[in-house]
Amino acid sequence: MGAVLSKDEARPAVALPIYMDNQATTPLDPRVLEAMMPYLTTKYGNAASRNHSFGWEAEQAVDAAREQVAGLIGGTAKEIIFTSGATESDNLAIKGIAEMYRERGDHIVTQVTEHKAVLDACKRLEKQGWRVTYLPVQADGRIDPGELERALEAKTVLVTIMAANNEIGVLQPVREIGRMCRERGVLFHTDAVQAAGKMALNVSEDFVDAASISAHKIYGPKGVGALYVRRRNPRVQIAAQIDGGGHERGMRSGTLNVAGIVGMGKACALAQEELEREGRRLEGLRDRLKARLEAELDYVRVNGSMEHRLPGNLNMSFVYVEGESLLMGMNDVAVSSGSACTSATLEPSYVLKALGLGDDVAHSSIRFGLGRFNAEAEVDYVAAKVIEVVRHLRELSPLYEMVQEGVDLSKVEWQAK
Ligand SMILES: Cc1ncc(COP(=O)(O)O)c(C=O)c1O
C-alpha cells in the first residue's frame, strides 16, 4: 500500500471545482462558441426564408454544418436531420421507423442497458401492440451477437442497439450487429451519442441505417442533435413525429436552431480532426486514474469491459462505501454515481444491475468521465481525493472492519429485530 496522503500534501495546484462528468455533458469549446456567435447576433435569418439574403445566409450555414456532421460519421449531408437533441433523435428513429414499416412486422429488438430515450420509446410502442425483445448483456456489458441472431424473426422490423453506453462506456459490436441486420433485411438504428466523435464510427462500414447524435456530448451546445437516416441501399423512410412547416424534408418540422446547428457542425469537425490524438490522450489519463485507485485501495472493481470501452470513461465500484457519501465527501469534484440522467433517484443504476452487480456494489459506484479540458494534474487531484475519502469512509464502516478481520459477510446471519 502507498503512503497515506495528508490533507494538503501531494495535491497539485489545480483550479477547483474539477469537472469530470463528460458523459453527462461537456463544456462548450470556445472555438464552437466563436463559430456560433455571428448566428446569435448579426446573422439571424430564418434558414427557411427563401426571399432574402438573411435567409440564404442562414441556409448556407446550416448546409455547411450538415456536411460537417455527416463527415464525422461517414454519411452524406442529405442524410442528416437536425433535431433538438438525441432524446428526440432516438424517439424519431424508433417511432418513425415503427410507424412507417408497420406492414412489415411488429417486432423490435433492443438491449437492457440502452438510454431511457430508447427504452421508453420502445415501451411506448409496446402499448401500441409492438413486441419488443430486450436482450441481456454479459458481465462485461456487451450483448452476445449469437443471442441477437436468435432473437431476430421474420416479423422483426428494427434493431436498436447503442454504440457506446453512457454509464460504463462499453462499446457494443456495432459492425457485427449491422452486418447481421443488413443480411436479414432488418433496419438497424444505433444511439451513437457517446460514441460519435470519440471513436471511429462509419455508417457505411458499420451497416448503420439510422444513428442518433447530440451536440452537447462533443463540446457543442445543448438542445441540438441530429438523426442520420440512410438514403441509399436501403433508402430508409421515417414517419415524422412533429408536423408543421415541412422542414428537414418533412421528417422534422420546426424553425431550425441555426446557431445551435452551426455549433454542432463545428463541434463535429473539431472532434473528427482531433479524434485519434485526443482518444490516446484520454485513454492515458483514464488509465492513470485507474492505476492510482487500484494501487492505493482494496476492494475496488471496474464495471464493464476495459477492452471495448470509450477512452474517457471509467466506472468503478468502491465496495463498502456508499457512492452518494463518497460524492458528498469530494464536493470540489464533479463526477457521477449511477446515471446522471436518473441520479435524481436513489435507485441503483439499472445498467450496473444488468452486469450482475448487487444493489450494494452498484450503490458504491462512481462514473469518471474524462474530457477534452481535463489535464493530468486534475486526474492526480481526483485520484488523491477519492483515495482519501474512501479510506475515511471505510474507517467508519463496520462492514469493512469485519471483512478486514476475515469475516465472510455472505455467511453472516443478521439478526432481525
Ligand atoms: C446514450 C445517450 N442517449 C441519449 C441521450 C440523450 O441526449 P440529449 O441530452 O441530447 O437529449 C444521452 C444523454 O444523456 C445519452 O448519453
The CATH topology assignment of the largest domain is: Aspartate Aminotransferase, domain 2
Cross-sheet strand order for the largest sheet: 2-8-7-6-5-3-4
The separation of the N and C termini measures: 39 Å
**Percentage of residues assigned to helices:** 25-40%
The helix-and-strand class reads alpha/beta
Strand content: 5-15%
**H/E series, N to C?**
EHHEHEHEHEHEEEHEEHEHHEHH
Instruction: Supply the CATH superfamily name of the largest domain.
Output: Type I PLP-dependent aspartate aminotransferase-like (Major domain)
Radius of gyration: 23 Å
CATH class of the largest domain, please? Alpha Beta
Q: Largest beta sheet, briefly?
A: 7 strands, mixed
Record field, number of beta strands: 12
Would you tell me the overall average pLDDT? 94
Low-confidence stretches: none
Domain count: the total is: 2
